[in-house]
């Protein structure tokens, strides 16, 4: 390949700074040419030591910096829609952190804008599709060796939730990963959702409904259940068991070292998603850089981002109303029919 | 201890013959003195080599044989109520295979009959309470080391279902084990049930709704979900994960030998419940013999048998009607308040 | 079967008391009719509640009690030879705890005495042959599915050693179990032994060479290595990996419950051989009672006991001299050629 | 960081081509500017699509190409000494695939040449030091949480050996990885070695002594045993268990997906070292590129390469002579005393 891909990064917070570091020396083939963040000090800190990088307050200015060939959006979700449309207006390929747009209506506007362009420019940051274990499970399911998938049993546990976390966010922030993973693994849409609420853990903040148990139905008749428990105390644990007609497969229980001491043989449990999915983030961004340099767009589409938002909204309704909710998706534009990533 | 306990066994089918063998030389302290089965030939076959055993066509005759001090009921469920009442009438301690009585109304009549006696005579054959793994899990939960239990995730898989198996039986025959195990592990009653029906496996017989996904709510606010899949093809697999406030514990994935060959490291999966729970059956019957010889009754009570039937009936209604059903239990007689086994 | 087998138990210490309890109500078909121990108080304590049992100071008196049909020897090893010869003189079947006789010369005298009788009366208490995991491994090796065994990697770890434990005892007390297990699993004699001495653990008592690493060569060209570490601190851990031409199989790492808390997923490690091998002891004694009631003798023979002593003696020489020692066995009497348990 | 590091690659065979691909787009911060291979056709094939790369027949010509700032040596071992000395003459940093030099005498000449330079230029390609599992084990041992290491039990298995593989190569090609890993993990030199030879597997080529069992002693009194079995048939399996005073730790048994079907729960075993250690190779080269761009040299030194050769030579002698051999190392030049990687 030729020259390095010039990337503008919008947002220099926790996730943005991590991506800046990754683009600078974690992956090959890219360089950071501009960064935008309202807090220009933290943007400068995140770009210290990078030759010739521009720091801006405004996203548009960062997009217009010389040498920008692609955009990585890591600003807060509320700013995503504007950022995506600005990138589309300039014809710039985008990697947009999840959520695509927080609400389904906004996400649908992005879908429609890209559909009007007539070609894909954006990829959504569902990094689990790049995790080695998920890739292996997807490959096994696609191989047909286990027959049709009947159920997915999923677990999503965090040590503790940040102070701003709400009961809705267990679904539209945490479970949104399972929503995308299930659509991708099964190649099916999620069509309905129920949320069951066990009595909350005494370790959860008051008024937080934690844990929750979410059950999705799919267009192919499968069930997807998710235990989401964001104050489990012991670790960051993401597991998925696919139960198929001819066997089952389980990821998320693997271990790399078994330590025996004081009466027990123990495997360490990761404490943090940046640890658990570090390699997945690297592969995601490397894959995006490689594809972009070749003029291609692959990975999760804005349709996937929209579908995740729509399912999450139905989930939040189900949480509030206590009964099953159906998911109503807009018609899928033709652009997303042939992208090789579409759920059927 | 002194002389051997004289036992009448009602039923000499698959399970009855197994118990006859077990009483004769699998456990200590008992001897089989009489057996009743309408098919006296198979009763004779099952008792071959046992000195002085009587074989009868009629249960009542077997109960009245000289030397009978206790009864083990392994006849078809439909015959249980009559057998139990006959044992009660003679003051004989009983170990009754599950189900106590197939329908909740009949089970309640047994409860009332024993309550009128004013003392416990019967134990129900929920053998999982005697399985080493379940006992370990129960002990851990009771210790409080993991805090309050929030959820139980259960799996119940069989290689294939017998030809007479119906969709209702996934609940009232298979899941009835999880119903009792959950009540016992949590020390709570199950108060409501929902049944979700994924698209059936192509390996299930036509018209059999297999697998099913059953979710129970409990009197303490916990959730119990059960995947029941009786044509999974690969093995007999019973697992339970208890998710608690301060940690989780999982049984059913243990292995005793890891064999590596041809590109894979494999653990054998049991094919049959008589293999998986062989030790549990032995311990159950030994425990019953020991207690009976000491004039005690312990283990699952007829109240537990009734509760399992009532919950299973609600489950079957939920399967048919497609919506959540509540469980309505009769008032619990005082006899079952203090037995040390009661769910609260 | 008919009446209960009357057993005399010699020795009422830790192991003897455990066997008395087992014969009384752990296994079926036997009753304890007499017990001998120099400390008659502890013998009385061990037999409390057993009807009609006689307690003696002298072994011979216990053997001569009315109703004695078989003998279980659980006295100290130094008393075994005399006890075995006394049982042989009375034609009584014997189950003799390991070691058969502490020294190979004494063990050989027992072999010769039984050979003169012309029939087997004694079984040696190598209980691992009755452990479910070892039985499964043996069965797999015998099946030929993995091809010829090339190596056994063994681990034998104890939490801590009793105060009287010597460096020699790591071999002739601890490793003696692996010696028998290897002969049995491979159906081969052990022909040479080397002992390597890593720098002792700081947790071992001063002057105790702990751990040791013992390597045996076999008559079929296989290697058997054993890590023996009796002050490992964390648990009682017995593992064996058989490496064969077409695959490998490992036992001793199985778990029955996985507990996740505080950053780790842990399996409990047994602390004690009476816990780890509880079922094996039960099966061993039940098997002996059953065989004896049928007039048969099976299980490890006195030849096996002699071979274990001879190999252990060579091991102790190798430990002292720091170089490989060959094992010289006496010719095997014909009686032990056809017993179905002989190594080839 | 600034411009890309210009790298000359010597050797375009299996390993060299893999490194060319890795430098081009697997890691960041480097570019391939020249390649040397006697077979210029395969060198051209390996560099297809790389802008401006020069292909040469002679190593010296590749080193003299404009823009060369560092060298990666992936030619056959016999060519390493000359390549290293040529790089030293030009002051170029080198990453040299293992073995440093096939024989200890040649390796020592490289050590002396670098010592004369007075600064480190070369790193040896022992990639296990970059494997996530080994790194975790090293970190645990260094933490002191398990106390002093007493023994390492290692397994090194390959599916099958290439046709040119000799009995010596089990030690100086395969076990050389364990030699370096043990020195690194324990921070000790290996001082003596014994090789035990079980009867070869019927699946090994005739005359190949496979498997072998190698036992090393260390300067700190630890033991390191290695089962090396290069025709095990079932997979590429590298395991290491460290037994310490206060516990043990094991790597190499981890799994990422458990598949249950047809009576067994199975984990896949990698078939190939390029699969098992793919990430380690990436991290190794990335780490070398990063350090070189910063003017630093880290990683395994030529002293480590020499020590591995000297221990392997003693191992081959032990294999041939059937008795324990001591390892005699030359005095360590002061240059390697302070490199932070030295065994003590």
UniProtKB/TrEMBL annotation, chains A, B, C, D:
Annotated InterPro entries: Gfo-Idh-MocA_inositol_DH, Gfo/Idh/MocA-like_OxRdtase_N, GFO_IDH_MocA-like_dom, MI/DCI_dehydrogenase, NAD(P)-bd_dom_sf
Catalytic activity reported: myo-inositol + NAD(+) = scyllo-inosose + NADH + H(+)
Top-level taxon of the source organism: Bacteria
Domain GFO/IDH/MocA-like oxidoreductase residue range list: 134-249
Keyword Oxidoreductase: yes
Record's keyword annotation contains Cell cycle: no
Keywords noted in UniProt: NAD, Oxidoreductase
Top enzyme class: oxidoreductase
Domain Gfo/Idh/MocA-like oxidoreductase N-terminal residue range list: 6-124
Coiled coil (UniProt feature): none
Membrane spanning stretches: none
Family the entry assigns: Belongs to the Gfo/Idh/MocA family.
Function: Involved in the oxidation of myo-inositol (MI) to 2-keto-myo-inositol (2KMI or 2-inosose).
Subunit structure: Homotetramer.
Name of the protein: Inositol 2-dehydrogenase
Lineage of the species this protein comes from: Bacteria, Bacillati, Actinomycetota, Actinomycetes, Kitasatosporales
Name of the coding gene: iolG
């Amino acid at each position: 390949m030729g020259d390095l891909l010039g990337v503008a990064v919008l947002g220099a917070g926790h996730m943005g700074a991590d991506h800046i570091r990754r683009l600078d020396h974690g992956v090959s083939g890219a360089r950071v040419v501009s960064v935008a963040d309202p807090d220009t000090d933290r943007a400068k800190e995140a770009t210290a030591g990078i030759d010739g990088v521009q720091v801006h307050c405004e996203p548009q200015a960062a997009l217009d910096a010389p040498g920008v060939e692609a955009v990585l959006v890591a600003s807060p979700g509320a700013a995503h829609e504007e950022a995506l449309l600005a990138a589309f207006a300039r014809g710039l390929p985008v990697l947009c952190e999840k959520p695509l747009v927080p609400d389904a209506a906004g996400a649908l506007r992005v879908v429609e804008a890209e559909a009007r362009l007539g070609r894909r420019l954006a990829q959504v940051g569902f990094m689990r599709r790049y995790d080695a274990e998920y890739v292996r499970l997807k490959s096994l399911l696609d191989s047909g060796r286990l027959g049709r998938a009947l159920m997915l049993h999923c677990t999503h546990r965090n040590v503790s939730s940040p102070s701003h976390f709400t009961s809705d966010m267990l679904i539209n922030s945490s479970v949104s990963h399972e929503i995308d993973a299930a659509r991708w693994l099964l190649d099916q849409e999620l069509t309905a959702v129920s949320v069951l609420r066990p009595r909350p853990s005494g370790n959860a903040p008051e008024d937080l409904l934690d844990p929750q148990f979410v059950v999705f139905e799919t267009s192919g008749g499968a069930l997807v259940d998710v235990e989401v428990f964001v104050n489990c105390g012991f670790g960051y644990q993401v597991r998925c068991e696919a139960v198929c007609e001819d066997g089952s497969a389980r990821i998320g229980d693997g271990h790399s070292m078994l330590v025996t001491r004081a009466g027990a043989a123990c495997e360490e449990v990761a404490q943090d998603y940046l640890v658990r999915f570090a390699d997945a983030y690297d592969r995601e961004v490397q894959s995006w850089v490689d594809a972009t340099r070749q003029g291609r767009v692959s990975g999760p589409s804005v349709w996937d981002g929209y579908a995740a938002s729509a399912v999450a909204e139905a989930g939040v309704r189900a949480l509030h109303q206590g009964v099953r909710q159906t998911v109503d998706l807009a018609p899928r534009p033709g652009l997303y029919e042939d992208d090789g990533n579409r759920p059927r």
